Amino acid sequence: KMDDDDDDIPQLSSHTLAALQEFYLEQQQREGMKTSQGFNQYSIGSIEEDWQLSQFWYSDETAACLANEAVVAAGKGGRIACVSAPSVYQKLKEQDGKDFSVCILEYDRRFSIYGEEFIFYDYNHPLNLPENLLPHSFDIVIADPPYLSEECLQKTAETIKYLTKGKILLCTGAIMEEQAAKHLGVKICKFIPKHSRNLGNEFRCYVNYASGLD
């Protein structure tokens, strides 16, 4: 006798299923177009925002400005870590051949296309990092915690302090100014970062060194 339990499994309506298939097909076509056009995998938007992961990419100008700031701050042959800041990482990679190295710590595994420079990162486990990621081995850490909560900032701060030799560039909401100072000793800059889509919350940059962002 067949098991009747199968009846309890919710079935997608044929309309929903068709819409879903169409969505995936479009996505595949987009990916195919990117490949056939000699697509630059490092350009902002090459991996689309996932709002469920609280992802909002910077505008091209903001990403370029933050990337340039990081290069100057890191110095010749410097090491840069991008924590939950993939659009800055992408801009840095566009400067191919420049004298610095960079890695990306990110929860979204789509960024694993960047190979060895990608490190899976979950802010809930701030020090769950690969053994080869040595403490205080980065000249500057750029971080953009995914959520505007003190818990998220505090845990991301543990990661930042572990990685950096000293310099920190934090991007988060203006409402986090007090907590940013408390957990990382950073001060707000004059530079106003912009996103490719407008956010409801005012966004700011914070640093703990004399930067070019003022």
UniProtKB/TrEMBL annotation:
Subcellular location: Cytoplasm
Gene Ontology terms: biological process: methylation
UniProt GO cellular component terms: cytoplasm
Domain of life: Eukaryota
Annotated GO MF terms: nucleic acid binding; protein-lysine N-methyltransferase activity
Principal cellular location given in the protein's record: cytoplasm
Pfam families with a match to the protein in the record: N6-adenineMlase
Catalyzed reaction equations: L-lysyl-[protein] + 3 S-adenosyl-L-methionine = N(6),N(6),N(6)-trimethyl-L-lysyl-[protein] + 3 S-adenosyl-L-homocysteine + 3 H(+)
Annotated keywords: Cytoplasm, Methyltransferase, Transferase
InterPro entries to which the protein is assigned, alphabetical: DNA_methylase_N6_adenine_CS, Efm5/EEF1AKMT1, Mlase_EEF1AKMT1/ZCCHC4, SAM-dependent_MTases_sf
UniProt name for this protein: EFMT1 methyltransferase
Organism: Ardeotis kori
Underlying gene: Eef1akmt1
